[in-house]
Amino acid sequence: MKLDEFFVTGEPLIYGGMVAIVLVTSAIIFLLTYFKKWKWLWREWLTTVDHKKIGIMYILSALAMLFRGGMDALMMRTQLAVPDLNFLSAQHYDEIFTTHGTVMIIFMAMPFLIGLMNIVVPLQIGARDFAFPFVNALSFWSFFFGALLFNVSFVIGGSPDAGWTSYTPLSGAALSPGPGQNFYLMGLQLAGIGTLATGINLMVTILKMRAPGMKMFKMPIFTWSSLITCFIIIFAFPILTVALALLTIDRIFGSQFFTLTGEGLPMMWANLFWMWGHPEVYIVVLPAFGIFSEVIATFAHKRIFGYSAMVWSIIIIAGLSFLVWVHHFFTMGAGAFVNSVFSVSTMLIAVPTGVKIFNWLGTLHKSKIEFSTAMLWALSFIPSFVIGGVTGVMLGMAAADYQFHNSYFLVAHFHYVLIAGTVFACFAGLTYWYPKMFGHKLNERLGKWSFWLFLIGFHVCFLPQYFIGLDGMPRRIFHIGPEWFTLNFLSTIGAFGMGIGFAIFVYNIYYSFRYSKRETTGDAWGGRTLEWATPTPVPPYNFATLPEVNNIDAFMEMKEKGETTFDEKKLQPIHMPSNSGKPFIMMAILFFASFALVFEWITLAAIGLAGGLIMMIIRSFDYDEGYHFSVNEIKQIEQSRRGLDHE
Amino acid sequence: MSEQNFSSGPLEYQTEQSRLNILGFWIFLAAELALFSTLFATYAVLSGRTADAPAPFELFEPTSTLIMTFLLLTSSFTCGIAVHEMRNGSKKGLLTWLIVTLLLGFAFLGFEIDEFITYVHEGATLQSSAYWSAFFILAGTHGLHVTLGAGWMILLVIQLMQRGITRVTSRKVFIVSLYWHFLDVVWIFIFTSVYLIGMVM
Amino acid sequence: MLDFMPFRKKGLILLLFGIVLLLGGCDQMAVFDPKGPVAESQRDLIVYSLFFMAGIILVVYVAFTIIIIKYRDHPKRKENSYKPNFHGSKTIEAIWTIIPILIVTALSIPTVTTLFDLEKPPETTAAKEQKEPLVIYATSADWKWFFSYPEQDIETVNYLHIPTDRPIEFRLSSTASMAALWIPRLGGQKYNMAGMETILYLQADEPGIYDGRNSNFNGEGFAEQTFKVHAESADKFGQWVRDKQTNAPKLTQEQYDKLLKPGLTDRHTFSSTHLDWVNHGTHKGMDYDIIRHWKEYETLLHLEVGNIDESIEEHIEN
């Protein structure tokens, strides 16, 4: 292979990207060296098994991916702003919408939410860490290197260009030769290992490590939604694993699963993909519902309305999510009966979802609403999401779907549910739990600017797309005709509004780091659940002593009784897991193996895989038992973090 | 091996971490079940799509698959005896039966590899048609799992020789035995839905 | 700042409603401008559902706005309007579970009946006699359309003539990548797939020229894979058929294979069809294209808006 085939050449935008990557990387290396931070980076972050630090790394990576996916979106909207523009060529446009979709779902939405779960769930249930802290680190690094592999395609080898759904036969070896599609397959596969591991890990944590007295139906809603999300991950992700593996084997080793030759069955991909893909939608939206429930209850200063209805609706939604995959391809000609069944099952999802919406309204009823930034995100979710929800029901009506399918109506719908659901929740959750993570709040004034710009930009961007869709504009075309100009132009303006909103959000992180008042208590907002019972910054072991939980709002009860998580009489030494560099090294090795496989360098890939196996063997012989915090150490940590003057 | 004296319930359940690991592994097996179900579903959908390659009934051999089934079922049984010996605290019995299990597992793999080679010589390869792709990937994935399980068991044999039966090693043995029994169950499904049905059709 | 926040929120909602009403008012949108019975039945279903959707949105928005304003943290609020532990009411929860179920039922019934109707050729109004559907094989290739009229023995590329007031039975298939035939003013789409045949019934009641396209992304030339549908009276259609039967050249397999190559092409008309040697909708025809043009799929078109016409010319020269 020649060098100009290895690197992507000929695109000025990509050259710009390469220069930017080189500059940013050298800047980071320079800063780390100049401030002598390499050791710190390794010891505090790359080898950490602490769920709070891993969560922060997830969220930082997700923000970076949101930036990348957002740049893709802005480039697409620029190309579509004016009829027949030549800002992007057809090929480049195809690559960008593919990476936009993949990055946003797999490398932004999921890690963002998993990051929040990482930080919050153990704190909410009174656990000292995940059940398997080592595996948790492994999960993060698998996501990180999966994302890295996928993003490398931008400058090396060329990006995938068959859409985030990668329908066969288009994405097969015959119609999409070259490494681009392999990047998609291997990047997702690598990241998928971590997602599955997190699902198992978090499920065991929630099932087995709750504070004494916290029965299942006393868990906070966010923990409930995380548990159900884990359930979906455990049963849906293996399907994706298989689908990706089969297509990889098709492309690299010449099997005939999805091919046009050898009596392959290309339509099977769509089935497998959506049998994972539809549950996947709920993997990113159920935790979002959980976040909104927490934020709304806190800032409405009122107990959540209809707790058990909330929980059961999550469970029902999760169950139904496995029974609706065909609605993604009603137009495949499965016949009226099959389409009818899946139409009805799809529309049924609206019932538990509607129940949730009304329960949030019920929570707000007779409450005392405090319009903090986090609350604004949560409140604006309700009217925005309802639009996405009702259009979702319209799409679920198969006979009408023949007209909506593959059009901008569909594009508008899923952006309405995924942005108003997931992205708003990520912003709400990050703003809400920020003081717990970093010891200071995000600036409220900047936060509100970013919120209003993003919200208005969002509606201006996506509401017109419903109408362009009804006018027959299909998704994924790289230039528009003059008849669709006005609404597209409006949509582009909205997209840039969202971009500015996001930029302000990121600036706010920097601004608040410099200027925000530091938190002294652990309870920044008058919280209701156990995460607010810990001091800030949260000690490595989270809870010095565990409270007895009798109530859904465990921390409210503690506050009434005057209890804390630092009961000196009950102190005992706390066992902690040791840090380990193995997760990072193992996943780095698998990254190189996958990279080799992308270019079909089989020997190198095999060597890499062997390296991964050797790491697993080394791990098997690792009998490190961890270490303990002594009672005195705990006393010191707690007294200093709680500002108690003991002497 | 003084740790044995802590006993209340089996040794492998005695620490909190062990209980977590075992539950975690059960959930992992649920995910594995989803994985194999997907492979079975693809196999079912693609059955009959043999293109120009030979049909399965022309190639499947009842005797060798029966021997393979016998080998794997027996290995599951010996694996059970190994765990029983472990609970009796007999390191020697545990090691003996684990090694017997391993030998049976390797015999199974030997037959499977031989079977695959025969098929390839007869003109049915991974590349020849959708059906054969599905066959090789389904049976191959199971075979790969058996290989990994055997490798894992070898590691445990070494660790048992180094450390004896402790709360940690006993938990590891118990988990690998769960894995081994699971692969046995999967094989029963492969035997019936792939080989038996394939020979009849 | 906190105090007027809810009013800004309300203002935004009003603005949104304004946009909805403004845009909802224009009926030139293709889906709301049906020219045949299939598109009409789908339009009717959509409009029917829109009433429910508007109702749901209205209820939620009104309730939301009232609650947000009434229960904001405000110094003048009465003490007894704040009930921090009010957390459930069986009656109201039952109501907001049952009403959505009723709505879903109300939407399901017409959806299912329409679905079954769409499987059959549309029935003409009682005044006119029912005509046998006209069969057209619509085959998608990268990135062009072949329309074969087996009864008339005509094949067109990238355009289509159909008679009005007569159901058209499209038999959809593809030479390689999956596509979808969509003529929004005549009705919804269905997929074209290699090795499979899907059937789509459409009908035009009004003569006119309508836009049709592939709506399912299938690679670089996707945006250009469009065609025009010329709907005309039965007489005019007959004239067109006779004209093409006599004047258009025969389609040879060699020429067909050349046309199949991935790329763009202009309109063509032939007085014979490719069905004589291959039907891509059958198991046998599935790999016809791919085994001939494996190599060609590796080259890019380098498609930009300006060079689309050039690409078409270039292709014809080759």
UniProtKB/TrEMBL annotation, chain A:
The keyword Nucleus does not apply. CDD domains: Ubiquinol_Oxidase_I. InterPro entries: Cyt_c_oxase-like_su1_dom, Cyt_c_oxase-like_su1_sf, Cyt_C_Oxase_1, QoxB. Its EC number is 1.10.3.-. It is found in: Cell membrane. Gene3D superfamilies: Cytochrome c oxidase-like, subunit I domain. Residues 36-550 form the Cytochrome oxidase subunit I profile domain. GO terms for biological process: aerobic respiration; electron transport coupled proton transport; respiratory electron transport chain. Pfam families: COX1. One of its GO terms (molecular function) is cytochrome-c oxidase activity. Heme A3. Keywords: Cell membrane, Copper, Electron transport, Heme, Hydrogen ion transport, Ion transport, Iron, Membrane, Metal-binding, Oxidoreductase, Respiratory chain, Translocase, Transmembrane, Transmembrane helix, Transport. It is a multi-pass membrane protein. It catalyses: 4 Fe(II)-[cytochrome c] + O2 + 8 H(+)(in) = 4 Fe(III)-[cytochrome c] + 2 H2O + 4 H(+)(out); 2 a quinol + O2 = 2 a quinone + 2 H2O. The chain crosses the membrane at residues 12-35, 56-76, 96-121, 133-156, 183-207, 227-249, 269-292, 304-326, 332-355, 376-400, 412-434, 446-467, 487-510, 585-618. GO terms for cellular component: plasma membrane; respiratory chain complex. Its cofactor is ferriheme a; Cu cation. Pathway: Energy metabolism; oxidative phosphorylation. The keyword Ion transport applies. Catalyzes quinol oxidation with the concomitant reduction of oxygen to water. Belongs to the heme-copper respiratory oxidase family. This is Quinol oxidase subunit 1. It comes from Lentibacillus populi. The lineage of its organism: Bacteria, Bacillati, Bacillota, Bacilli, Bacillales. The gene is qoxB.
UniProtKB/TrEMBL annotation, chain B:
The keyword Ribonucleoprotein does not apply. It comes from the Bacteria. One of its GO terms (cellular component) is plasma membrane. Residues 1-199 form the Heme-copper oxidase subunit III family profile domain. Keywords: Cell membrane, Membrane, Oxidoreductase, Transmembrane, Transmembrane helix. InterPro entries: Cyt_c/ubiquinol_Oxase_su3, Cyt_c_oxidase-like_su3, Cyt_c_oxidase_su3-like_sf, Cyt_c_oxidase_su3_a-hlx, QoxC, Ubiquinol_oxase_su3_dom. It is found in: Cell membrane. It catalyses: 2 a quinol + O2 = 2 a quinone + 2 H2O. The chain crosses the membrane at residues 20-46, 66-83, 95-111, 131-158, 178-198. One of its GO terms (biological process) is aerobic electron transport chain. GO terms for molecular function: cytochrome-c oxidase activity; oxidoreductase activity. CDD domains: Ubiquinol_oxidase_III. It holds the Pfam family COX3. The keyword Cell division does not apply. It is a multi-pass membrane protein. Its EC number is 1.10.3.-. SUPFAM superfamilies: Cytochrome c oxidase subunit III-like. Belongs to the cytochrome c oxidase subunit 3 family. Catalyzes quinol oxidation with the concomitant reduction of oxygen to water. This is Quinol oxidase subunit 3. It comes from Lentibacillus populi.
UniProtKB/TrEMBL annotation, chain C:
PROSITE patterns: COX2_CUA, COX2_TM. The chain crosses the membrane at residues 45-71, 92-116. CDD domains: CuRO_UO_II (cd04212). Signal peptide: none annotated. Residues 23-122 form the Cytochrome oxidase subunit II transmembrane region profile domain. It catalyses: 2 a quinol + O2 = 2 a quinone + 2 H2O. It is a multi-pass membrane protein. One of its GO terms (cellular component) is plasma membrane. One of its GO terms (biological process) is ATP synthesis coupled electron transport. Its EC number is 1.10.3.-. It is found in: Cell membrane. Pfam families: COX2_TM (PF02790). GO terms for molecular function: copper ion binding; cytochrome bo3 ubiquinol oxidase activity; cytochrome-c oxidase activity; oxidoreductase activity, acting on diphenols and related substances as donors, oxygen as acceptor. InterPro entries: CcO_II, CcO_II-like_C, Cupredoxin, CuRO_UO_II, Cyt_c_oxidase_su2_TM_dom, Cyt_c_oxidase_su2_TM_sf, Cyt_o_ubiquinol_oxidase_su2, QoxA. Its main location: membrane. Keywords: Cell membrane, Electron transport, Membrane, Oxidoreductase, Respiratory chain, Signal, Transmembrane, Transmembrane helix, Transport. It is an enzyme of class 1 (oxidoreductase). Residues 131-243 form the Cytochrome oxidase subunit II copper A binding domain. Belongs to the cytochrome c oxidase subunit 2 family. Catalyzes quinol oxidation with the concomitant reduction of oxygen to water. Subunit II transfers the electrons from a quinol to the binuclear center of the catalytic subunit I. This is Quinol oxidase subunit 2.
